[in-house]
Amino acid sequence: MNAILEFTKHLEANQHALKAPLVIDSQIHRTQVAGDKRHQTSGWYVLYQHGDLLVGVFGNWRTRQSETWCSKNLNTLTDQERKNYADSVAKAKELRLTEEAKLHAQAKAKAQKLLAIATPAAMQNKYVAQKGIRPHGIKQFSKTMTLLVPLFEAQSDSTDFEIVNLQFISP
């Protein structure tokens, strides 16, 4: 069986929905996975080719699961193929961590932008009133009354906290 077809079947068996042909370019490509909403692409894969050896790494951003795949049985690899396999897996991990950092930075920037345009949550907000809470530090969109609850992360080198994302609560 063709290695590309094998990897495609392996991705599909792991609940990745491929909308386009696989690309072998040592770059991360996004896919839909089970549980994704219509426009979400929580899945990812990267493919490396070393002669007739194809190495794939794939995963799911949401579940933080990742897995490696090789077109040949790992026990039959030559020393050079074993090195190529290990190098590919290490490069894929580096790519994934870089992409993950980029996604976190984008979420942080979006959260800060939305908080800047939102207004402080009112005691009359339906959710706030139902729960009988005080909306300390919570904001809302005036038109929809959707609450924006900031999610913070402690900085390892200080006692400061920074906003990294938001939780949205609809009334």
Task: Provide structural commentary.
Strand 4 and strand 5 form a beta hairpin. The strands form 2 sheets. Strands 1-2-3-4-5 form a 5-stranded antiparallel β-sheet, sandwiched between helices. The model has no long low-confidence stretch (mean pLDDT 92). The longest helix has 39 residues, at 79-117. The protein has 171 residues and is α+β, with helices and mostly antiparallel strands. Helices cover 33% and strands 29% of the residues. It contains 3 helices and 9 strands, in the order H-E-E-E-E-E-H-E-H-E-E-E. The relative contact order is 0.10.
Précis, in short:
The chain is built from 3 helices and 9 strands; from the N terminus they run H-E-E-E-E-E-H-E-H-E-E-E. With 171 residues, it is an alpha+beta fold.
Number of DSSP strand runs? 9
Q: Based on CA inertia axes, which overall geometry fits?
A: elongated
Q: What is the helical fraction, as a range of percent?
A: 25-40%
State the separation between the terminal residues, measured CA to CA.
54 Å
Determine Rg (CA atoms, Å). 22 Å
Largest sheet: 5 strands, antiparallel
Major beta sheet, strand line-up: 1-2-3-4-5
Strand content: 25-35%
State the helix count: 3
Judged by helices, strands and strand pairing, the structural class is alpha+beta
Low-confidence stretches: none
Nearest-integer average pLDDT: 92
**What pattern of helices and strands is seen along the backbone?**
HEEEEEHEHEEE
